[in-house]
C-alpha cells in the first residue's frame, strides 16, 4: 500500500496543481523517510522534481524542485507544497 512507487504516484497526483508550466520537463521523484512512527509505519516525504526534456546534443540539465508531498504514519497525505518555478 505505501511502497515508494505508490507514494510517488499519489504525490504526483496531489501535486498536479504545482506542475503547471513544467510541460517541457520530465517529472521524476524521490522518497525519503523523515521519521519512524511509534506503532508502525514511517513519515515520508516525496520530492517531485523536473528536468528539461533534451532533444539536442547541447542541453543544460537544470533540476528544479516542483513540489514536496508529506505522508503520515498511515500513508495519508498531510501536506503538499509547491516549490519551484518552471524551467524555460
Number of helices: 1
Rg computed from alpha carbons, rounded to a whole number of angstroms: 14 Å
Instruction: Tell me about the largest β-sheet.
Output: 4 strands, antiparallel
Helix content: 10-25%
Terminal Cα separation, in Å? 36 Å
- How many E-type strands? 4
Principal-axes geometry comes out as: elongated
- Write down the secondary-structure element order: HEEEE
Alpha-beta content class? mainly beta
Average pLDDT number: 86
Query: Strand-residue fraction?
Result: 35-45%
Low-confidence stretches: none
Spatial strand arrangement across the major sheet: 1-2-3-4
Architecture overview:
With 88 residues, the chain is mainly beta. It is 12% helix and 42% strand. The protein contains 1 helix and 4 strands. It has a 4-stranded antiparallel beta sheet, covered by helices on one side. It is elongated, with a radius of gyration of 14 Å. The termini are far apart. The model has no long low-confidence stretch (mean pLDDT 86).
Concise synopsis of the structure shown:
With 88 residues, the chain is mainly beta. Helices cover 12% and strands 42% of the residues. It has one helix at residues 4-14; strands at residues 25-36, 42-52, 64-71, 77-82.
List the helices and strands and how they pair.
Elements: H1 4-14, E1 25-36, E2 42-52, E3 64-71, E4 77-82
Antiparallel strand pairs: 1-2, 2-3, 3-4
Keywords:
88 residues; mainly beta; 4 strands; 42% strand
